[in-house]
Amino acid sequence: MKITIILLFGVLFIFFWILIQYNKLIRMKNSVKNAFSGMDVQLKKRYDLIPNLVSVVKQYMLHEKNLLTKVTELRRQAIDGGISNEEKVALDNQISETMKTIMISVESYPNLKSSESFMNLHRNLTEVEAQISAARRAYNATVNDFNNGVEMFPSCIIANCMNFKSKNFFEIPEYEQKNVSFDNSF
Amino acid sequence: MKTVEQSFQFNDQLDGVVNSLETKKLGCIYENQLKPILESFEEERKSLMVKSIIAIVMATLGFCLIAPNLLLWFNVYSITRIEKTFNISTSLINSYISNSFLFCLVGIGLFVVATIFNWLIKFQKKSYKKKFKESIVKKIVNIINSTWYYSPEGMISSAQYYASSLFDKKVDKYEGDDLVIGKIKNTEFCLSELHTQSRYKNYYYTIFKGLFAHIDFNKEIKGKTFVFPEQTIFNKPIQNFNFFRNKGQLIKLENPEFEKLFIVYGSSQIEARYILTPTIMEAMVKIRKKYKTNISFSFIGNYVYIALSIKEDLFEPRIFKSGISFNDVEQMDDQFRLINIIINEMNLNSRIWSKE
User: Fold this and answer.
1) Residues B240, B314 within the same domain
2) What number is the ipTM of this complex?
3) Which residue of B has its CA nearest to A122?
4) Model pTM score
5) Residue A182 binned pLDDT confidence (cut-offs 50, 70, 90)
6) Is residue B128 located within the same domain as residue B200?
7) Which of A63, A135, B79, B347 has the highest count of CB atoms within 10 angstroms of its CB?
8) What residues in A contact B251, CB-CB < 8 Å?
């Protein structure tokens, strides 16, 4: 009788432990998803600003037409949909790089740099970049928690059963690790 | 090409040079402008000190004359016990008892005179304090920035104190002074000394004492973000239980040094990171290390609110110690410069964001 009670308690303990670990992992997985969608919102804001940027700078930057075409094409690919999160991240990195190059090129056009429409756009872009950077950091923090849950003992047992795999961190470029701003390019 | 470590070392060296230059500049101003004023105050300070000492001696003497009577009247001590405990001869005790009424009368008289004297000194102290603040503290504020407005008796409004949401306890006593209002480039600020207390039965206990400031924040904030000082090493495991639940979610940031000194709560994980950029985190660590005291920040609406805990009274003249001290002036200058340091270190003048 005693053994049956002990066994029953043991089984109940294991059941509740599995339940808690399972819920914890699901919560962490959802946090990662949520953080990614938070970042997605910010990325979309940047996609919205790209056409404005192109239309403002194209009259001045005649020699950098390739850059503008590239950024427009990248934007189109990003908003078309049907791409995985990893592809989205890779596209976003390319857009960031191209935008930075455009901003550096603006240096050579003082009239453009001082125009009111560009200045407003510049402010908005800086704002969006800061928001994207914050969203990336928030995403990395949730990924870190999730990866800890997936890799640490004993929660890794449940994670393995659920086929959860560690997720990749969003790589933050070195220039963004200091402070995010297009202002550095001026 | 410089490494990151070399850049940090270079920045620290640059800070050191700037600080020593500022100290030298202040030293010159102190010698030429402030010291003569402080010297002219010395006579008044000494007279106040002597008067205060007289009042204290009179009150002590009065108490000494009354105390034995009280002991006997309330039967706390019997004559034999006094004799044994204090090793005083019976004849001396008897002579005291026979003249007890006279002693008591003189004692009460001294007590009353001391109280009146103290009351009169209080007015003199007040006028001395006013003179000191108007000529010394005001001058220090003007040295830092001549456009700043200084009011010795002004203080940050309780509405702003509550708006900061840094302290939840109900305030029963709200005191403060030394209000400074100003602008550094585009950034407006307000700073004052504050002392808030709450009452429990008949006892007042301090909620906050120190420098309180609110500064225009250069980014658009929709939610609330709080940065509190990390109190003890035991806090770390407790953090996860989130005792500051009403302050929002616990936010874990990447800077290990910052995480050691501060604990962050906020209504949004993204907004907290939008505000607390790596640069701002570094700045907060620097400020915390410079002032070596608890410092809390809250980012709400258009402002960043800062509460720097300091136990002693700030910007007050001393009575029992010489007022001619460069260290005191330097300390005051250092405390007022808190605003400069925060605005510069946190880059609050940078208006590259969508907020104008």
Assistant:
1) yes
2) 0.74
3) B352
4) 0.77
5) very low
6) no
7) A135
8) 141
